[in-house]
Specification:
- The structure is a single chain.
- With 292 residues, the protein is mostly beta strands.
- Helix content is 5%, strand content 38%.
- The chain is built from one helix and 24 strands.
- The protein has one helix at 3-16, and strands spanning 45-48, 53-54, 59-60, 67-71, 77-82, 89-94, 104-107, 113-121, 125-130, 143-147, 152-155, 162-164, 173-174, 180-181, 186-188, 192-196, 202-206, 212-215, 225-229, 235-239, 246-249, 259-262, 268-276, 280-285.
- The strands form six sheets. The protein has a four-stranded antiparallel β-sheet with strand order 1-10-11-12, with no helix packed on it. A four-stranded antiparallel β-sheet has the order 2-7-8-9, with no helix packed on it. A four-stranded antiparallel β-sheet has the order 3-4-5-6, with helices on one face.
- Strand 7 and strand 8 form a beta hairpin.
- The longest helix has 14 residues, at 3-16.
- The two termini are 16 Å apart.
């Protein structure tokens, strides 16, 4: 694997984020590959109602050990997935507002969620980033919310009242009946994270040190990519436009009912319909089981 691919995949994001205190994390549940089913539930959430601020250095944590929203001291607002207690965290999204020490975030009465420079505010100015959800729409439940699945969203008052990071967690098993992953989607096992990044690269990170150990090499495509297990058994990354041009695939077509699993041993594997861990029937894998 060419290391420059991995560096390019997240170099801007890693440079933008600083290490902050980690909330104690629970170990991910062992994989149960017996059935295909829809993606997991959103879980609990932590909300900011109008007039509430997330001060510099503060965080919102719906359930300890899952995800957190951090207003970092450097001014960057970051959504992290939490891994092993005291270990690295996976940055799922950030506002790109680093370089503004003391900046804070405010859920405004007008429905807009704004990051202000230190000393700034609705009356004094100094806004450096916002969700553009302000308006006059009658929405009784204006709020910003971080959910256990890693999605940070804002319900505002504009006609386009909903804004989201689109960083939802999916199950570790992907079947043709499960729908598809869009950019920002991620999954985890006990040992690794797998994320379809905003740059279109599908990347696996190990939880022990946060290092990228595999990637699809699909960063930089002009159109957004979608990860989908096709009915015929081929796992593909294809464009989301009308042509759905395939940019990467496992080459496992001709295996109706095949499915993919992100395993606790760190391997991402495509199995035949009746296969699985302990049963055999592997059709393709990332060969990352020895890289933990």
């Amino acid at each position: 694997m060419r290391h420059h691919l991995l560096r390019r995949a997240l170099v801007s994001l890693l440079a933008a984020t600083a290490v902050t205190a980690v909330v104690p994390a629970a170990t991910a549940a062992a994989a149960d590959p017996t059935t295909c089913r829809p993606t997991g539930e959103n879980g609990y959430s932590s909300d900011l109602r109008p007039g509430r601020a997330l001060e510099s250095g503060a965080s919102l944590v719906p359930t300890p050990g899952k995800v957190e929203l951090v207003m970092q001291a450097d001014g960057n607002l970051v959504v992290y997935a939490l891994g092993n207690p005291g270990g690295p965290k996976l940055p799922l999204w950030h506002s790109g507002t680093y370089g503004n020490p003391g900046a804070y975030a405010l859920m405004q009465e007008d429905g807009n969620f704004v990051i202000y420079q230190q000393g700034g505010g609705p009356q004094t100015g100094g806004g450096i980033w916002h969700t553009a959800t302000y308006g006059n729409r009658d929405n009784a439940y204006v709020h910003a919310s971080i959910r256990d699945n890693g999605e940070f969203s804002v319900s505002g008052r504009s006609e386009d009242w909903y804004w989201s990071t689109d960083t939802s967690e999916y199950r570790y098993r992907l079947c043709s009946t499960d729908g598809s992953w869009t950019r920002g989607t991620w999954a985890q096992s006990a040992t690794v994270w797998l994320q379809l990044q905003k740059d279109n690269n599908l990347v696996m990170y190990r939880k022990s040190d946060g290092k990228a150990i595999w990637n699809s090499g699909t960063y930089g495509n002009r159109n957004g990519l979608v990860l989908e297990m096709l009915a015929g058994g081929d796992l593909t990354l294809h464009e989301s436009g009308p042509n759905q041009t395939v940019r990467w695939h496992t080459g496992t077509a001709g295996n109706t009912g095949a499915f993919a699993i992100l395993q606790d041993d760190g391997n991402f594997v495509v199995y035949k319909k009746d296969g699985g861990p302990g049963k055999g029937g592997a059709l393709w894998n990332t060969a990352t089981y020895n890289k933990l």
